[in-house]
Amino acid sequence: MKVLVFGGSFDPVHKGHVAMLKKALSVIKPDVTHVVPVYHSPFKAKSPTPFQLRMEMARAAFGGLGKNLIFDDYELQRGGKTYSYQLVQYLQKRYDHPEIYLLVGTDCLNDLHDWNNSDYIFANATIVAGRRKGFPEHKVTFKHISLPGQFPKMSSTRVRAHILSSGEIPTDKVPSSVADIIIKNDLHGLDQHRWLRAHLKPNRYLHSIKVAELCAVLSDIYEVPIQKAVQAGIFHDAGKGFSAEELISFCKKHHLKIPYFEDICHCEPALLHSFVSAELAQELFGLNDPEILNAISEHTLGSLEMTTLSKILFVADISSKDRKYKDAFVIRTLAMQDLEKALLYAANRKLWFTIDSQKWLCPTGIELWNHLVKHTA
């Protein structure tokens, strides 16, 4: 009895998943295949997409690949985190002396020794590996089968980041049946884009997209989770559609603690939009990650304790590709090489823009400048 098992978050299912399972079915020729969406991966935060929707995506994407496919809610029934060795144990009990084949990508293959109770997995299952571009297969000592060919370098994380940053589903990466489910259920930030389109002017909405795109690029360079960077970028200007009176009223109603609040209200209330944007993100869409919220709050004036994510957003906001002034390209190029120097340059430009416009200089911006000059060699 050959049992092929393919587990994953499937959030969302992409064409790389489909291609790998299709090839595994043709090579292994299993008697039965279990597709097992993860309830809570031991290696990741719990998926924000409900289990039943991820199961629906798996059924839509894989359902036509062959006979005897079982879409197994084993992990949902268990609740909490499930390790792969427990999945193997479950299948051993379900079938009489099964030959278990565990399908993984080469990105997982190279880390299998670090999995919980990995020796049990190696003793009781054969690993089936699909080679993914960009993830070379290192020398492994356990029994495994390498599927012929090479599969696309895709990840659900990257697909989600693309949708969140652009508001569009990459049809070259996501099966149409899965795209329909994403659209129908407003997943992966589509709800945020609808709100932003309704509340921002077209140019400001475009700016938000361009900032999110640059945040994604910089997140790879400076090893910040891409989903965090894109989320901060796409929602950083959500409050820009508010009038000065609405910004002040919102801050007071929500009891926001803002340095130099009275002076800002009197001299330059538009500066409040960053704090309002962070509050809107939390209030409307349940975004509670403090690092993301702080980055949004700090993207205009900065702070003396900026995280790498905050620095990325601060720089991306002033140098995104929709910015037409000549120094935008300089800052953007510098950011690819040295984030600290780009931050200093960006802070300099913001100060000069304010002075040239004969506007009030918030002390927070001056404090940031002095701090950067002091600490940037």
Architecture overview:
With 377 residues, the protein is α/β, with parallel strands linked by helices. It folds into 2 domains: 2-159, HUPs (Rossmann fold); 189-375, Hypothetical protein af1432 (Orthogonal Bundle). Helices cover 54% and strands 8% of the residues. It has helices at 15-28, 51-62, 74-78, 84-94, 106-109, 118-124, 156-166, 176-184, 190-199, 202-221, 226-235, 244-253, 261-267, 273-285, 290-298, 308-319, 327-335, 339-356, 363-375; strands at residues 2-8, 32-37, 69-71, 99-105, 126-130, 144-146. Strands 3-2-1-4-5-6 form a 6-stranded parallel beta sheet, with helices on both faces. Strand 2 (32-37), helix 2 (51-62) and strand 3 (69-71) form a beta-alpha-beta unit. Helix 11 crosses helix 15 (290-298) and helix 14 (273-285) packs antiparallel against helix 15 (290-298). The mean pLDDT is 93.
